[in-house]
Amino acid sequence: MMATLRAHDLGYDVIYVRDAVVVTADPQDLLRSYSRQLTRWNGGAWSCTRQLKMWGSTRKIALETQLVMSEGFVVSVMLLFVPLWFYLFPRIVETWLTIDGGFMLISATIVSLRHKRWDILLYTPTYVVLRFVDSYLLLKGFHQAFFGPKSEKLSWQSSTRYKLT
Predict the structure, then answer these.
(1) Most buried among 4, 52, 130, 149, by the most CB within 10 A?
(2) Number of domains in the chain
(3) Cα of 72 vs its chain's centroid, Å
(4) Given CA atoms 40, 45, 47, 52 in this order, what sign does their dihedral have?
């Protein structure tokens, strides 16, 4: 993230390479490794924006980054307050969750059919849970980057991975 934002900031072009080859290694302890990775990514993203003085800047990349990060922050806060919203406005939240879940199911179905990956449909209910986990981890990364001890800001936390054969 730092390299991308810094390159943009210096006026260089960052391009998307469609034919790039990427190999992934799935973690053995999914939720723990997933949480650690998202905490690293989110904390790194927030730290980069702080270190590059993007907040309050009018540079194009800074404005775009502020918009994306702010949207993630606001949506995460709102999502984590869903139980309160449900208590206060049950019909509205019920309608919103039904529409949101419907779009998620439609998206998962399209991707599943297009890639012939039936496991995507099988795991669709977990996506709802992961949205809450993701929201919490985005806010945790924000807290670490702006209020946490300096030693934790961009610390590496290794994950146990399956070996590729």
Answers:
(1) 52
(2) 1
(3) 8
(4) positive
Residue 10 burial (CB count, 10 A): 8
What type of residue sits at position 36? R
Q: Classify residue 54: in a domain, yes or no.
A: yes
Long-range contacts of 56-65, Cβ-Cβ distance < 8 Å, separation of 24 or more: 59/9, 60/8, 61/5, 61/8, 61/9, 62/9, 65/5
pLDDT by residue (tens digit) across 50-70?
A: 888 888 888 888 888 899 999
Q: Is residue 156 part of a domain?
A: no
154 Cβ partners below 8 Å, 6+ apart? 40, 43, 44, 47
* Closest C-alpha among 16, 7, 8 to residue 60: 8
Residue 160 within any structural domain of the chain? no
Using alpha carbons, select from 70, 61, 87 the residue that is nearest to residue 8: 61
- Whether 155 contacts 149, CB under 8 Å: no
For 70-101, the pLDDT digits (tens) are: 999 999 999 999 999 999 999 999 998 899 88
H runs (alpha helix) in the chain: 2-9, 30-51, 60-80, 82-88, 90-115, 118-122, 124-147
Residue range(s) defining the domain that contains residue 117: 2-150
Helix, coil or strand: residue 161: strand
